[in-house]
Automatic annotation (TrEMBL):
Gene: coaE
Top-level lineage group: Bacteria
Alphabetized SUPFAM superfamilies for the sequence: P-loop containing nucleoside triphosphate hydrolases
GO BP terms in the entry: coenzyme A biosynthetic process
Lineage, broadest ranks: Bacteria, Bacillati, Bacillota, Erysipelotrichia, Erysipelotrichales
Name this polypeptide is given: Dephospho-CoA kinase
Family under the similarity heading: Belongs to the CoaE family.
Function of the protein: Catalyzes the phosphorylation of the 3'-hydroxyl group of dephosphocoenzyme A to form coenzyme A.
CDD domains listed in its UniProt record: DPCK
Length: 196
């Protein structure tokens, strides 16, 4: 089985690519979904975070409050490392379990939005970066996500720059056209990848 990590900046088209791969019959997994499950009340990530941070990351119902967790993670030195040290081994273990169920597949795709930021290149046989020209990215974020241009730019600045991701990628899936063009770029890259 070849494991392919799919990444790229916010709005580049990762979910669109994953959807197209799924529709073409490939198996796809999603690290954000695994993280969301781990953070559910009572689940392993939740329990481990509560043991470290008590209820400072919870809302009144005792569920994880993502805003509070983000503030804790990004505004107090050392917490990002602590949270990652708790969650990342759990996410990787869960991913491993899910991959084991798919051992007979030739190719499996895993969406990892922050793959390079968290340094998970070695978990995959190849990393594909979905990318689009910055003006187009900003336009799509404004049109489809209703995010103001300045806010979209600010959020993009928080991630590793797209140019760096493109440089690190094993393959780049450009998404500068319509969805039909994206679909044919996927078929082209699949043809190359299935031959490796
Ligand atoms: C802090 C959390 C709860 C915020 O969730 P929320 O749904 O509000 O936002 P989202 O997940 O889209 O993250 C928002 C932005 O935060 C930044 N961010 C989040 N986690 C990280 C990280 N580990 N390293 C760097 N930036 C990060 C990114 O710029 C991202 O675009 C969530 O991101 C989280 O649980 N992060 C820790 C787990 C993790 O490292 N995930 C990434 C690997 S799967
Ligand atoms: N080629 C395209 N033509 C038109 N719209 C597109 C194209 N690719 C993506 N979009 C639209 O742009 C938006 C962002 O795409 P998508 O959700 O796939 O990106 P993403 O990388 O998964 O973003 P995020 O990391 O923020 O979840 C969506 O509304 C999607 O439908």
């Amino acid at each position: 089985m070849k494991k392919i990590g799919i990444t790229g900046v916010m709005g580049a088209g990762k979910s669109s690519v994953i959807e197209m791969l799924k529709n073409a019959g490939y198996h796809v997994l999603d690290c954000d979904r695994i993280n969301d499950e781990l953070l559910m009340k009572g689940h392993a990530g939740y329990q481990a975070l509560i043991a470290e941070f008590k209820d400072t990351i919870c809302d009144a119902q005792g569920d994880v409050d993502r805003m509070k967790m983000s503030v804790l993670m990004f505004q107090e030195a050392g917490n990002k490392e602590k949270i990652e040290a708790i969650l990342h081994p759990l996410i990787q273990a869960r991913l491993q379990q899910e991959l084991e169920q798919l051992q007979q597949e030739t190719l499996v795709f895993v969406e990892v939005p922050l793959l390079y930021e968290v340094g998970w290149e070695s978990c995959f046989d190849e990393v594909w970066v979905v990318a689009a020209d910055e003006e187009l990215l900003l336009k799509r974020l404004q049109q489809h996500r209703h995010v103001a241009k300045a806010e979209a730019k600010a959020r993009l600045r928080k991630q590793l720059p797209q140019a760096v991701k493109v440089e690190k990628a094993d393959r780049v899936l450009w998404n500068n056209g319509d969805k039909e063009e994206l679909q044919s770029n996927i078929y082209a890259i699949l043809k190359e990848a299935e031959g490796f």
